[in-house]
Amino acid sequence: MKFKDFGLNETLLDALFHMNFEEATEIQEKAIPYILSGKDLIGCAQTGTGKTAAFVLPTLNQLSETPSDGVQVLILCPTRELAIQIDQEIQGIAYFTNASCFAVYGGGDGVSWEAEADALKGGADVIVATPGRLLAHIARGYVKFDTVKHLILDEADRMLDIGFFDDIIKIIGEIPEERQSLMFSATMAPKIRTLAKEILKNPEEISVAISKPAEGVTQKVILAFEEQKIGIVHSVLRDKDDFKAIIIFCSTKKKVESLARKLLQKGYACQGISSDYEQQAREMALRDFRSGKIRVMVATDVMSRGIDIKGIDLVINFDVPGDAEDYVHRIGRTARAKSKGMAVTLVCPDDMFKFGKIEQLIDRVLEKEQPPAEIGEGPQWGESSKGGRAPRKKGEQVKSSANKKPRREHPERAPRAEGSGPEKTPKKKREPSKHQKMFDALSVSKKSDSLDQPLSSKE
């Protein structure tokens, strides 16, 4: 379906034309008509499907038709990176309109705080905010949300994972009850249903490609011991030297620092990024990565959701994510917008069970490879170092027990006939010592005394 078929106003269509957008994605095709009609909506779709434009386009269309003063749209999202990205996308689409947008997120200085305060007092039509930073402004008493007509929660499941449920409810208490509410999430967990009941009224519900990797992603799995992983990463980067944009996901901030440092020592244009980095450093790293100045970005899951960087060729999972859903989000960084990409996951013995859960989620058994010959043989699939076994898949070959030696059965022993075999000589009873006799006598005396006495009430 083409964007011109939705009945959007000409200014938005001009913006889409200049941005080279013509065909709507599946989530946009399903969501935009409901939002234009003013209905509440809960949308479930994986990353990279165009969720942001699905709610930005119809919302800006409604703003252009009924312009008014004050904050009209409030968009909540889990991270500052996503807030910046949504703000930039709105700025691009709203270029030909009169709508203004401002992002409110933590990590800035006093100047940015004052600019955010001015926007929240009614100086912007659209506010994109992280819950924590927004609540800090609300506590000062100057936030003006009485004109808000549209509430949008993006990456709602991620916000709940971080623990923003109570914050979201507090913020919603500051805006009018009469509004349109939209909630977008990559998963439809029970906690999402709970939140939806709190903030949505008779919502329509749509879902697109839940928990399935994009078709354009080539998925590879390499079995590796922990000490082999860095060598394998070096080998993959060397073999894929034509790949210009690569993200490597690690499970901890400490691993991000260590791996980024070692790759820099090997001569790669590399940068680490995690929540430990200062906001300015994170923004600079993302800017350098987008521009191609940095080829390899080593990151925690802060980069797995909501960060739209086009042209990523390769994703390497240095560690298997703890949540199977996060695997889909990680590899969703590549092969976006129907392009092609590759995802390589390094699986050590301790992570085999977790990766088996991932295969169950994506409903696919992936071929397991060994490390390159120069690195040495890796572990075998199936047995973890903790004794657990990776979940067995349908059709998986299992070692036969036919060649196992039968368990040795002990014949029932018949009772020994009288006179057969040697008789055991009974042990001679040891005479108690003088000290033992005195101890026994004392014990008997105390026992007799206690039996003669009645129990006290305390006992």
Count of individual helical segments:
15
Mean pLDDT: 82
Strand and helix order: HHEHEHEHEHEHHEHEEHEHEHEEHEHEH
Q: Any idea of the CATH class of the largest domain?
A: Alpha Beta
What distance lies between the first and last C-alpha atoms, to the nearest angstrom?
86 Å
CATH fold group of the largest domain: Rossmann fold
| Main sheet strand line-up | 3-4-2-5-6-1-7
Q: What structural category arises from helix and sheet content?
A: alpha/beta
Radius of gyration, in Å, reads: 33 Å
* CATH homologous superfamily annotation of the largest domain: P-loop containing nucleotide triphosphate hydrolases
Q: Could you please describe the fold and organization of this structure?
A:
The chain is of the alpha/beta class. Strands 3-4-2-5-6-1-7 form a seven-stranded parallel sheet, sandwiched between helices. It has a seven-stranded parallel sheet with strand order 10-11-9-12-13-8-14, sandwiched between helices. Helix 2 runs parallel beside helix 3 (51-65). 37% of the residues lie in helices and 14% in strands. It has 15 helices and 14 strands. It folds into two domains: 3-208, P-loop containing nucleotide triphosphate hydrolases (Rossmann fold, 3-Layer(aba) Sandwich); 217-369, Rossmann fold, CATH 3.40.50.300. The chain has helices spanning 10-18, 26-36, 51-65, 80-93, 110-123, 131-138, 156-162, 165-172, 190-199, 229-239, 253-265, 279-291, 324-331, 352-362, 434-452, and strands spanning 41-45, 73-76, 101-104, 126-129, 150-153, 180-185, 204-208, 217-223, 246-249, 270-273, 296-299, 314-317, 341-347, 368-369.
